[in-house]
Specification:
Blueprint (H helix, E strand, L loop, with lengths): L6 E5 L3 H13 L3 E5 L2 H10 L4 E5 L7 H11 L4 E6 L7 H8 L5 E4 L4 H11 L22
Parallel strand pairs: 1-2, 1-3, 3-4, 4-5
Helix pairs in contact: 2-3
Length: 145
Amino acid sequence: MEKDKPLIMIVDDEPDMCWALENILRQNGFRSEKALNGQGAMKLMKRHKYYLAFLDVKLTDMEGLDLARLIKSVDPDIRIIMISGFCYKDDPTIQEAIQEGLVGNFVAKPFLHKDILDSIESTSSFARIESTDEDSVPQNIESIP
């Protein structure tokens, strides 16, 4: 059943990148929703609880790491994977975010399908993926702007 598949949020200001990620995820048994900026991502957070989020490092309305902090303040359990064509995994800012637990992984653009799937696997334990209740929303919902 479709509702039993994990729900993943994609946030990227490039519609083609969102499309590519959506297709990779769908082909591998995941459901996804997209936002083109941080404000759109926070609107999605009001509607659903996400298992994981792919966030672009550079967005039109805010930095991806700032959005990651905001999302984590609302839902500390969400797993976050940063994606970027502007920096790499060894970037000190990205490394710091990974070390502090804000970000679970990083994928550089352009990427292969395998890069996306490997990042999900390394960020989560598939044995523990549980169905998310689509009607469920994060507990700190009042703090969403």
